[in-house]
Amino acid sequence: MKFLVLFGFFMATSQLSSPSLCDLGCNPIDANDSSPFSKLDHVVAIGGGHGLGRVLSSLCHLGEKLTGIVTTTDNGGSTGRLRESEDCIAWGDLRNCIHQLTTTPTIARSMFEYRFTGNGDIADHNLGNLMLLALDQMSVRPLDAINLIREMLQVKSAIIPMSEQPTHLVAVSEQKQRIFGEIRIDKMPDMPQRLLLEPTVSATPEAIKAIEQAQLIIIGPGSLLTSIMPPLLLPELQKAIANSKAKKIFITNLIAEDSPAGNITKSGLLRWSQEMTKLATPDAILLQSETTKVKDVYYYRDIKSETSVYHDRAKLQNAISDVYNELINQPVISS
After folding, report:
1. Considering the domain boundaries, does residue 16 fall inside one?
2. Count of domains in the chain?
3. Domain that holds residue 70
4. Burial of residue 328 (number of CB atoms within 10 Å: 0-12, 13-18, 19+)
5. Is residue 274 included in any domain, yes or no?
6. pLDDT of residue 64
């Protein structure tokens, strides 16, 4: 009953602004900018967790030209409890990406991130997760539920689950042991010998279409094993990326992650990822540095926030634009 009352209130207040919330608007667009980045028609960002949300929010000025393809294998927290009881996809990362793209400070925006307190069955559940689940059960497919929430919160960019079918991330260790679920995989002492999705699922058709139309594909930042890799394990998505002529930029984390991936070098992570996905090296790998420089495919830019552990939105937007422009303007070397 408590959830139904809050859901109804959310619907009624989706257009009401909240004077107590800060201005959430996107970084302004330079009307005089004629760079290649300013002329992009479609950008796709792939990943999960806070990393993808940060990238999407930094590029929210692109509006309908921006698509986020989101990992749906999380099995922790509110999301994990819903997955266990309802056999649904993971809603948490999808919810976070939608939230990061809301630029109007409404009461509904705050409610979407509300987390229940207390000790009952609903305690620690996120209202946004419950809303997405409810709309999914009322709809034909999960993407319908996402699009309804996007419309309510006035989010113009597309948010697409990597798959609309429930699946779990499974790792195989060097000792041939199977480790089930993201939570346990992040606690492994060493990098897994193999990653797979169980059961096998198909990629969301709209995700494949978005990649085929993209002129720029961004992967990361985020946990390599549990946020970035799951979508890249889908054969149709791998093929779409491999066949795409879009420029591809991989964004690295600011600090070493608390997982097996945090114990090896960035070049080692790149080699391991290529072995898992068979994908080619990205056109550019973006790393944090206070000194701007380029070394092979490594582009060093200051993208660190001064106030949090996450990437700075404005700096990240400028860095992505700068790197893409450099890639496009590189001289063509004839063979």
Report:
1. no
2. 1
3. 36-327
4. middle
5. yes
6. 96
Q: Does residue 149 form part of some domain?
A: yes
pLDDT tens string 100-110: 999 877 888 88
User: What pLDDT score does 234 carry?
Assistant: 98
Report if residue 5 sits inside a domain.
no
Here the CATH number for the domain that contains residue 266 is: 3.40.50.10680
Write out the two tokens for 172.
Answer: 């195989």
Confidence of residue 13 (pLDDT cuts 50, 70, 90): low
d(CA 44, CA 18): 31
Average pLDDT, the chain: 90
